[in-house]
Amino acid sequence: MALLIVLLATFVGLLAPLGMASTDFVIYSDPPTALLPGQSFQYDLTPQGIPYGPASLSMNHDCDLVLRFHNQKTWATNTTGLGTDCYLTVDSNGEAAVKHDMNYPLWSSGKKSVQGSYAFLLQWNGGLGIYGPAIWSSSNPPSLHDAGNEHPNVTTDYVFYSYSILPIGKILEYKNYKLVLRDDCNLVLEDTATNEIRWQTGTSSPLHDCFVTLDAQGELFVKHNRRDVLWRSGARSTPFLYIVALRYDGTLGVYGPQIWTTKPFW
Ligand SMILES: *[C@@H]1O[C@H](CO)[C@@H](O)[C@H](O)[C@H]1NC(C)=O
Ligand SMILES: *[C@@H]1O[C@H](CO)[C@@H](O)[C@H](O)[C@H]1NC(C)=O
Predict the structure, then answer these.
(1) What gap in Å lies between CA 217 and CA 118, rounded to an integer?
(2) What is the mean pLDDT of residues 166-182?
(3) Of the ligands numbered here, which is closest to the C-alpha atom of 107?
(4) What's the CA-to-centroid distance between 169 and ligand 1, angstroms?
(5) 145 and 177 together in one domain
(6) 149 close to ligand 2 (CB < 6 Angstrom)
(7) Atom 3 (ligand 2): residue with closest C-alpha?
(8) Ligand nearest to C-alpha 96
(9) How far away, in angstroms, is 22 Cα from ligand 2 center?
(10) CA angle centred on 248, ends 243 and 251, rounded to 5°
(11) Using CB atoms within 10 A of its CB, is residue 10 exposed (0-12), middle (13-18) or buried (19+)?
């Protein structure tokens, strides 16, 4: 019996990270994704078109999670050699962890918040941040179609932050998904692999002066005529810093407030 339990634990431990989807740039708690052993990504940070990066995050085979900014090591979990097949996840209380099996974290961010859906990301300032719980999501169903490998080189902005003001044009892009504020002020989430519209606000304005903005309480707006509201998401929470993320499953989510970071914005 004891042997069976040990075998089961080992088996579950090995399967957990391998069965989990891996994502670039953002790790999600729901559905859970992970930065897998040996996986790394580099991002040419260009907040609103201004070059700022590059930054990279690597889950090394030696078990150390390493962050680099302009090719300099800026932060690490210092877990070299503590395990094998280590991976990074974030849980439903917003706590990120480097683990080598299901149960034992070798490193954790140490900050728990309320139960919900969280996002761990590489921020445009080159730091890591955890945001959540999710307070709003677009109404389209998640896509099971993963066209990610057909568009491997898209490393443009996949999130934006509270206080951003984004004019007509491309707002966010993640692989085959694109959020665009069209010239007629309709905010549209497109799948560029299938040319389908996945979600839209359906707004229109003859003024062609509209913009998208996220406020300090996490409410998303399409406005025109300087400040008139064309569309609002209708969900608000505690004032601080929020993000809108174009998720790997083709949905849009608002996460926040920020609950942990390695590098504050101010
Ligand atoms: C890792 O070690 C470096 C150098 O000693 C230290 O500055 C850093 O805070 C450590 N990282 C963590 C997550 O404790
Ligand atoms: C992606 O980038 C690599 C290296 O820069 C290049 O060799 C490859 O052709 C690019 N792939 C696409 C689909 O653009």
Answers:
(1) 16
(2) 93
(3) 1
(4) 41
(5) yes
(6) no
(7) 153
(8) 1
(9) 20
(10) 65
(11) exposed
Domain-embedded: residue 11:
no
Mean per-residue pLDDT over the chain, rounded: 88
| Ligand 2 and 153: CB distance under 6 A | yes
Enclosing domain of residue 113 = 23-131
249 is a domain residue? yes
Torsion angle of the four alpha carbons 157, 42, 105, 21, in this order, in degrees rounded to the nearest 10:
70
pLDDT value at 213 more than 60: yes
Q: Give the pair of three-digit tokens for residue 172.
A: 């966010």
- pLDDT tens digits, one per residue of 81-132: 999 899 999 999 999 999 997 778 999 999 999 999 999 999 989 999 999 9
DSSP 3-state assignment of 207?
Answer: coil
DSSP 3-state of 214? strand
- Of 115, 131, 147, which residue is a domain's last? 131
**Residue 116 CA, ligand 1 centroid: distance in Å:** 29
3-class DSSP state for residue 4?
A: helix
Q: Are residues 141 and 71 in the same domain?
A: no
In a domain, residue 266? The reply is no
Report whether residue 139 contacts ligand 2, using a CB cutoff of 6 Å.
no
**The last residue of a domain, from among 131, 147, 165:** 131
Number of structural domains in the chain: 2
Could you list the beta-strand ranges (E) of 23-95. 26-28, 33-34, 40-43, 55-59, 65-69, 72-76, 87-90
Q: Could you identify the residue written with the tokens 């728990």?
A: 112
**Cβ(195) to ligand 2 under 6 A?**
no
